[in-house]
Structure to design on (284 residues):
């Protein structure tokens, strides 16, 4: 009796995508949200410059590097391996989607160069033993100082942090967002709910142009990641007697989960978007 061979499609190797790899990394980190010190986006008041390391990615047009860095923070921030994560260079290339547009060899090289750029920003260290394809990445402090990383607690101004929900990666927003949009997503996550983000202040506060600022806000509205409302204030000497500005807030899918109350206490390590002092009108 002749046996029927298995269908050809069952014999084909599965296709593994960058999103598959990113989701696997996030599942291993066992965190619903990713903490990121606010000083990555903007330095605290009193500093010589208010620009955070984020400005270097924006002005350098390095979307790949910024997305890679945020994913590394997600992969390492649980601390189970000493703020480090190690993968084969081919896996790093897959995590960054470089393998979709380059040969295997070129993709490995592209991943290594991206990690070296992050090391140049003093945000990580990366190690690759001679003759090995394994690359170990270790987090440094988010402010670009080169200091050792520790998990932010939110107990001091320098230690305040924003949170990025895993939905950003799991639902593929990271694949659809552009560089201005991602920069402004981090800016809005840094501030209180319903803040104003005047474009004319962008060069001073964040280190990029007003045009980049506005394009980022438009992209977030297009992706439905933020909501916007009008706000009016008196202006007796203006023709209309008032001025109108827009306030922005993250959509629920991008907001951190509120900590569960246990008796009369709350989890100290979770800082909500509204925990930072300052008025809703975008005081910097």
């Amino acid at each position: 009796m002749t046996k029927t061979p298995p269908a050809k499609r069952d014999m084909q190797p599965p296709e593994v995508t960058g999103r598959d790899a990113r989701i696997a990394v996030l599942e291993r980190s066992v965190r619903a949200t990713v903490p990121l010190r606010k000083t990555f986006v903007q330095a605290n008041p009193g500093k010589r410059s208010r620009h955070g390391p984020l400005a270097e990615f924006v002005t350098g047009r390095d979307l790949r590097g910024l997305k890679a860095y945020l994913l590394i923070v997600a992969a390492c921030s649980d601390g189970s391996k000493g703020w480090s994560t190690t993968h084969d260079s081919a896996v790093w290339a897959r995590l960054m989607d470089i393998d979709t547009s380059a040969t295997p060899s070129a993709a490995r090289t592209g991943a290594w160069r991206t990690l070296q750029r992050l090391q140049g920003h003093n945000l990580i260290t990366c190690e690759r033993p001679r003759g090995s394809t394994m690359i170990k990445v270790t987090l440094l402090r988010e402010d670009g100082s080169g200091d050792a990383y520790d998990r932010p607690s939110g107990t001091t101004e320098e230690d305040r942090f924003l949170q990025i929900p895993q939905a950003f990666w799991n639902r593929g927003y990271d694949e659809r967002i552009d560089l201005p949009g991602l920069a402004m997503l981090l800016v809005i996550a840094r501030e209180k709910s319903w803040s104003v983000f005047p474009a004319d202040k962008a060069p001073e506060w964040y280190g990029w142009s007003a045009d980049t600022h506005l394009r980022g806000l438009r992209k977030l509205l297009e992706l439905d990641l933020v909501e916007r409302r009008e706000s009016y204030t008196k202006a007796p000497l203006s023709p209309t007697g008032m001025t109108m500005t827009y306030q922005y807030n993250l959509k629920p899918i991008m907001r951190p989960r509120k900590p569960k109350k246990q008796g009369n206490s709350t989890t100290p390590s979770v800082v909500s978007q509204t925990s930072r002092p300052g008025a809703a009108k975008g005081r910097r």
